[in-house]
Amino acid sequence: MSEHPVVDVTIIGAGPAGLAAAYYAGHREASCRIIESLEQLGGQVAAVYPEKHIFDIAGFPKIGGQEYVDRMVEQGLQYGAEALLGEAVETLERVEGDGEELWAITTDSGGPYLTRTVIITAGHGAFEPRTLPIEGLEEWRGRGLHYFVKRKADFAGKRCVIVGGGDSALDWTINLQDTASGELVEVDCEALILQLGFVSHLGPIESWGLEVVGKKQVRVDPTSFETALPNVFAAGDVAYYEGKITLITIGLGEAAIAANQCVARARGVKLQPAYSTE
Ligand SMILES: Cc1cc2nc3c(=O)[nH]c(=O)nc-3n(C[C@H](O)[C@H](O)[C@H](O)COP(=O)(O)OP(=O)(O)OC[C@H]3O[C@@H](n4cnc5c(N)ncnc54)[C@H](O)[C@@H]3O)c2cc1C
User: Fold this and answer.
1) Is 38 in the pocket of ligand 1 (CB under 6 A)?
2) Most buried by CB count within 10 Å: which residue of 95, 100, 106, 226?
3) Is the CB of 169 under 6 A from ligand 1?
Protein backbone atom coordinates (compact mmCIF):
# COMPACT_ATOMS: atom_id res chain seq x y z
CA MET A 1 0.00 0.00 0.00
CA SER A 2 2.92 2.31 0.78
CA GLU A 3 6.69 2.03 0.67
CA HIS A 4 6.82 3.89 3.99
CA PRO A 5 6.28 1.93 7.22
CA VAL A 6 3.09 2.54 9.22
CA VAL A 7 3.87 4.63 12.29
CA ASP A 8 1.93 5.09 15.53
CA VAL A 9 1.99 8.89 15.43
CA THR A 10 2.48 11.39 12.60
CA ILE A 11 3.07 14.99 13.56
CA ILE A 12 2.31 17.76 11.07
CA GLY A 13 4.59 20.73 11.74
CA ALA A 14 7.94 20.91 13.53
CA GLY A 15 7.53 23.98 15.72
CA PRO A 16 7.80 23.84 19.54
CA ALA A 17 4.52 21.89 19.89
CA GLY A 18 5.44 19.35 17.19
CA LEU A 19 8.89 18.74 18.64
CA ALA A 20 7.43 18.36 22.15
CA ALA A 21 4.86 15.88 20.80
CA ALA A 22 7.70 13.89 19.17
CA TYR A 23 9.46 13.74 22.52
CA TYR A 24 6.40 12.49 24.40
CA ALA A 25 5.50 9.95 21.71
CA GLY A 26 9.09 8.63 21.62
CA HIS A 27 9.33 8.50 25.38
CA ARG A 28 6.24 6.26 25.42
CA GLU A 29 7.96 4.03 22.80
CA ALA A 30 5.67 4.97 19.94
CA SER A 31 7.05 5.12 16.40
CA CYS A 32 6.85 8.66 15.14
CA ARG A 33 7.16 10.66 11.91
CA ILE A 34 7.26 14.45 11.79
CA ILE A 35 6.55 16.31 8.54
CA GLU A 36 7.56 19.95 8.08
CA SER A 37 7.03 22.16 5.03
CA LEU A 38 10.16 24.19 5.62
CA GLU A 39 13.70 22.90 5.14
CA GLN A 40 14.33 23.60 8.81
CA LEU A 41 12.95 22.60 12.21
CA GLY A 42 11.70 25.04 14.84
CA GLY A 43 8.52 26.63 13.46
CA GLN A 44 7.96 30.34 14.08
CA VAL A 45 10.89 30.58 16.47
CA ALA A 46 13.40 29.48 13.81
CA ALA A 47 11.65 31.19 10.89
CA VAL A 48 10.62 34.52 12.38
CA TYR A 49 12.76 35.35 15.41
CA PRO A 50 15.85 33.10 15.74
CA GLU A 51 18.01 36.03 16.83
CA LYS A 52 15.61 37.40 19.45
CA HIS A 53 15.62 36.42 23.12
CA ILE A 54 12.71 34.63 24.81
CA PHE A 55 12.10 35.28 28.51
CA ASP A 56 9.10 33.09 29.38
CA ILE A 57 10.34 29.52 28.86
CA ALA A 58 10.30 27.68 32.19
CA GLY A 59 13.81 27.08 33.47
CA PHE A 60 15.42 29.63 31.11
CA PRO A 61 15.33 33.22 32.44
CA LYS A 62 16.53 34.28 28.97
CA ILE A 63 17.33 32.16 25.91
CA GLY A 64 18.09 32.95 22.26
CA GLY A 65 15.50 31.73 19.76
CA GLN A 66 17.90 29.54 17.78
CA GLU A 67 19.47 28.12 20.92
CA TYR A 68 16.01 27.17 22.15
CA VAL A 69 15.24 25.52 18.79
CA ASP A 70 18.51 23.55 18.94
CA ARG A 71 17.65 22.28 22.42
CA MET A 72 14.09 21.38 21.40
CA VAL A 73 15.35 19.46 18.37
CA GLU A 74 17.88 17.51 20.45
CA GLN A 75 15.21 16.65 23.01
CA GLY A 76 12.36 16.03 20.56
CA LEU A 77 14.21 13.74 18.17
CA GLN A 78 16.22 11.76 20.77
CA TYR A 79 14.06 8.65 20.38
CA GLY A 80 14.59 8.51 16.63
CA ALA A 81 11.50 10.18 15.19
CA GLU A 82 11.79 10.37 11.41
CA ALA A 83 11.85 14.05 10.34
CA LEU A 84 10.78 14.83 6.78
CA LEU A 85 11.70 18.38 5.82
CA GLY A 86 10.58 20.42 2.82
CA GLU A 87 7.27 18.53 2.47
CA ALA A 88 3.94 20.30 2.93
CA VAL A 89 1.09 17.99 3.94
CA GLU A 90 -1.81 18.22 1.52
CA THR A 91 -4.27 15.36 2.05
CA LEU A 92 -5.52 13.26 4.95
CA GLU A 93 -7.70 10.24 4.21
CA ARG A 94 -9.08 7.30 6.18
CA VAL A 95 -7.88 3.98 4.74
CA GLU A 96 -8.19 0.31 5.62
CA GLY A 97 -4.83 -1.12 6.71
CA ASP A 98 -3.88 -4.66 7.60
CA GLY A 99 -6.88 -5.28 9.86
CA GLU A 100 -6.90 -1.78 11.28
CA GLU A 101 -8.13 1.66 10.31
CA LEU A 102 -5.32 4.04 9.42
CA TRP A 103 -4.84 7.58 8.18
CA ALA A 104 -3.00 8.13 4.88
CA ILE A 105 -1.16 11.41 4.46
CA THR A 106 0.23 12.79 1.22
CA THR A 107 2.48 15.80 0.82
CA ASP A 108 3.36 18.02 -2.14
CA SER A 109 6.27 15.69 -2.86
CA GLY A 110 5.69 12.33 -1.19
CA GLY A 111 3.54 9.71 0.46
CA PRO A 112 1.25 8.10 1.14
CA TYR A 113 2.49 8.03 4.72
CA LEU A 114 0.37 5.68 6.80
CA THR A 115 -0.26 6.30 10.46
CA ARG A 116 -2.47 5.17 13.32
CA THR A 117 -2.88 8.65 14.81
CA VAL A 118 -2.14 12.23 13.77
CA ILE A 119 -1.20 15.35 15.72
CA ILE A 120 -1.64 18.61 13.83
CA THR A 121 0.86 21.14 15.20
CA ALA A 122 0.72 23.39 12.15
CA GLY A 123 0.87 26.79 13.90
CA HIS A 124 -0.67 29.27 11.47
CA GLY A 125 -0.19 26.86 8.57
CA ALA A 126 2.64 25.87 6.28
CA PHE A 127 5.37 28.46 6.10
CA GLU A 128 6.65 29.45 2.68
CA PRO A 129 9.42 31.95 2.14
CA ARG A 130 8.27 35.19 0.48
CA THR A 131 9.68 35.55 -3.00
CA LEU A 132 10.07 38.22 -5.67
CA PRO A 133 7.44 38.65 -8.40
CA ILE A 134 9.81 37.64 -11.21
CA GLU A 135 8.60 35.13 -13.79
CA GLY A 136 10.71 31.96 -13.93
CA LEU A 137 12.64 32.84 -10.78
CA GLU A 138 11.73 29.57 -9.00
CA GLU A 139 13.49 27.53 -11.70
CA TRP A 140 16.74 28.73 -10.15
CA ARG A 141 15.93 27.41 -6.68
CA GLY A 142 18.96 25.52 -5.40
CA ARG A 143 20.95 26.62 -8.46
CA GLY A 144 21.80 30.15 -7.43
CA LEU A 145 18.51 31.14 -5.80
CA HIS A 146 18.41 30.57 -2.04
CA TYR A 147 15.96 31.25 0.76
CA PHE A 148 18.12 29.85 3.56
CA VAL A 149 21.80 29.94 4.38
CA LYS A 150 22.40 26.51 5.85
CA ARG A 151 26.18 26.41 5.49
CA LYS A 152 28.36 29.46 5.03
CA ALA A 153 30.86 27.29 3.14
CA ASP A 154 28.36 26.89 0.26
CA PHE A 155 28.84 30.57 -0.50
CA ALA A 156 32.61 30.74 -0.10
CA GLY A 157 34.21 32.86 -2.82
CA LYS A 158 30.85 33.61 -4.47
CA ARG A 159 29.40 36.97 -5.35
CA CYS A 160 26.17 37.10 -3.33
CA VAL A 161 23.21 39.48 -3.53
CA ILE A 162 21.05 39.46 -0.42
CA VAL A 163 17.53 40.85 -0.83
CA GLY A 164 15.61 41.98 2.23
CA GLY A 165 15.64 44.66 4.87
CA GLY A 166 14.97 42.68 8.04
CA ASP A 167 17.23 41.38 10.77
CA SER A 168 18.21 38.17 8.99
CA ALA A 169 19.16 39.93 5.74
CA LEU A 170 21.45 42.23 7.68
CA ASP A 171 22.77 39.36 9.81
CA TRP A 172 23.78 37.35 6.76
CA THR A 173 25.26 40.38 4.99
CA ILE A 174 27.60 40.86 7.94
CA ASN A 175 28.13 37.13 8.51
CA LEU A 176 29.15 36.29 4.95
CA GLN A 177 31.64 39.15 4.61
CA ASP A 178 34.59 36.89 5.52
CA THR A 179 33.26 34.06 3.31
CA ALA A 180 32.02 35.66 0.09
CA SER A 181 33.88 38.08 -2.16
CA GLY A 182 32.84 40.98 -4.36
CA GLU A 183 30.23 43.68 -3.96
CA LEU A 184 27.21 42.55 -1.97
CA VAL A 185 24.98 44.80 -4.07
CA GLU A 186 26.28 43.48 -7.42
CA VAL A 187 23.42 42.70 -9.80
CA ASP A 188 25.73 40.30 -11.61
CA CYS A 189 25.94 37.48 -9.04
CA GLU A 190 26.25 33.73 -8.49
CA ALA A 191 23.95 33.51 -5.47
CA LEU A 192 20.73 35.39 -4.85
CA ILE A 193 19.66 35.02 -1.23
CA LEU A 194 16.09 36.15 -0.56
CA GLN A 195 15.43 37.08 3.07
CA LEU A 196 11.95 38.54 2.72
CA GLY A 197 10.23 36.74 5.59
CA PHE A 198 7.52 34.08 5.38
CA VAL A 199 3.86 33.74 4.56
CA SER A 200 1.63 31.06 6.08
CA HIS A 201 -1.88 29.73 5.58
CA LEU A 202 -3.76 26.65 6.79
CA GLY A 203 -4.31 25.78 3.13
CA PRO A 204 -5.37 22.18 2.51
CA ILE A 205 -5.92 21.49 6.23
CA GLU A 206 -9.12 23.55 5.95
CA SER A 207 -10.68 20.95 3.66
CA TRP A 208 -10.09 17.85 5.82
CA GLY A 209 -13.48 17.98 7.56
CA LEU A 210 -12.15 19.58 10.74
CA GLU A 211 -14.02 22.38 12.49
CA VAL A 212 -11.99 25.40 11.41
CA VAL A 213 -12.36 28.50 13.59
CA GLY A 214 -11.56 31.91 12.07
CA LYS A 215 -9.56 30.40 9.16
CA LYS A 216 -6.53 29.91 11.39
CA GLN A 217 -7.37 27.33 14.05
CA VAL A 218 -8.96 23.94 14.50
CA ARG A 219 -11.42 23.22 17.31
CA VAL A 220 -10.33 20.53 19.75
CA ASP A 221 -11.85 18.92 22.83
CA PRO A 222 -9.71 20.54 25.55
CA THR A 223 -9.77 17.40 27.69
CA SER A 224 -8.08 15.24 25.05
CA PHE A 225 -7.04 17.61 22.21
CA GLU A 226 -8.86 15.40 19.73
CA THR A 227 -10.38 17.17 16.71
CA ALA A 228 -13.65 16.36 14.96
CA LEU A 229 -11.86 13.45 13.23
CA PRO A 230 -11.16 10.20 15.13
CA ASN A 231 -7.54 9.74 16.23
CA VAL A 232 -6.61 13.15 14.80
CA PHE A 233 -5.42 15.54 17.50
CA ALA A 234 -4.16 19.14 17.42
CA ALA A 235 -1.88 21.13 19.72
CA GLY A 236 -0.07 24.47 19.81
CA ASP A 237 -1.18 27.65 18.05
CA VAL A 238 -3.43 25.77 15.61
CA ALA A 239 -5.59 24.21 18.35
CA TYR A 240 -8.62 26.20 19.50
CA TYR A 241 -10.86 25.92 22.56
CA GLU A 242 -12.51 28.55 24.76
CA GLY A 243 -9.83 30.48 26.64
CA LYS A 244 -6.98 29.45 24.35
CA ILE A 245 -3.72 31.40 24.69
CA THR A 246 -1.16 31.05 21.90
CA LEU A 247 2.10 30.79 23.81
CA ILE A 248 4.91 28.22 23.59
CA THR A 249 4.37 27.02 27.17
CA ILE A 250 0.69 26.34 26.53
CA GLY A 251 1.47 24.44 23.31
CA LEU A 252 3.99 22.21 25.07
CA GLY A 253 1.40 21.09 27.63
CA GLU A 254 -1.17 20.48 24.90
CA ALA A 255 1.39 18.44 22.96
CA ALA A 256 2.03 16.26 26.02
CA ILE A 257 -1.69 15.50 26.36
CA ALA A 258 -2.20 14.89 22.62
CA ALA A 259 0.87 12.63 22.33
CA ASN A 260 -0.15 10.52 25.31
CA GLN A 261 -3.66 10.17 23.87
CA CYS A 262 -2.12 9.01 20.57
CA VAL A 263 0.07 6.45 22.30
CA ALA A 264 -2.91 5.09 24.24
CA ARG A 265 -5.00 4.79 21.04
CA ALA A 266 -2.25 3.44 18.78
CA ARG A 267 -0.71 0.93 21.15
CA GLY A 268 -3.68 0.13 23.33
CA VAL A 269 -1.78 1.11 26.48
CA LYS A 270 -3.06 3.01 29.49
CA LEU A 271 -3.28 6.80 29.37
CA GLN A 272 -0.70 7.82 31.96
CA PRO A 273 1.94 10.51 32.38
CA ALA A 274 4.98 8.18 32.50
CA TYR A 275 7.63 10.16 34.37
CA SER A 276 10.88 10.72 32.46
CA THR A 277 13.22 10.58 35.47
CA GLU A 278 15.71 7.72 35.69
C1 LIG B 1 7.88 37.68 16.76
C2 LIG B 1 7.29 36.64 17.67
C3 LIG B 1 7.68 36.59 18.99
C4 LIG B 1 7.13 35.63 19.85
N5 LIG B 1 7.54 35.60 21.16
C6 LIG B 1 7.02 34.65 22.00
C7 LIG B 1 7.43 34.59 23.36
O8 LIG B 1 8.23 35.41 23.84
N9 LIG B 1 6.91 33.59 24.14
C10 LIG B 1 6.00 32.69 23.66
O11 LIG B 1 5.58 31.81 24.40
N12 LIG B 1 5.58 32.74 22.37
C13 LIG B 1 6.07 33.70 21.54
N14 LIG B 1 5.65 33.76 20.24
C15 LIG B 1 4.64 32.76 19.78
C16 LIG B 1 5.28 31.40 19.56
O17 LIG B 1 6.36 31.52 18.64
C18 LIG B 1 4.23 30.44 19.05
O19 LIG B 1 3.21 30.33 20.03
C20 LIG B 1 4.84 29.06 18.80
O21 LIG B 1 5.85 29.11 17.83
C22 LIG B 1 3.74 28.10 18.33
O23 LIG B 1 4.32 26.84 18.17
P24 LIG B 1 3.62 25.73 17.28
O25 LIG B 1 4.52 24.56 17.33
O26 LIG B 1 2.21 25.61 17.67
O27 LIG B 1 3.58 26.34 15.79
P28 LIG B 1 4.70 27.01 14.85
O29 LIG B 1 5.86 27.48 15.63
O30 LIG B 1 3.95 28.00 14.03
O31 LIG B 1 5.17 25.80 13.92
C32 LIG B 1 4.27 25.22 13.02
C33 LIG B 1 5.07 24.54 11.92
O34 LIG B 1 4.17 23.73 11.15
C35 LIG B 1 4.55 23.79 9.79
N36 LIG B 1 3.39 23.45 8.98
C37 LIG B 1 2.20 24.06 8.94
N38 LIG B 1 1.36 23.47 8.07
C39 LIG B 1 2.05 22.43 7.54
C40 LIG B 1 1.75 21.47 6.55
N41 LIG B 1 0.55 21.44 5.93
N42 LIG B 1 2.70 20.56 6.23
C43 LIG B 1 3.92 20.58 6.83
N44 LIG B 1 4.26 21.51 7.76
C45 LIG B 1 3.34 22.42 8.11
C46 LIG B 1 4.98 25.24 9.61
O47 LIG B 1 5.83 25.40 8.47
C48 LIG B 1 5.70 25.52 10.94
O49 LIG B 1 7.09 25.29 10.86
C50 LIG B 1 6.17 34.70 19.36
C51 LIG B 1 5.78 34.74 18.02
C52 LIG B 1 6.33 35.71 17.17
C53 LIG B 1 5.90 35.73 15.74
Assistant:
1) yes
2) 226
3) no
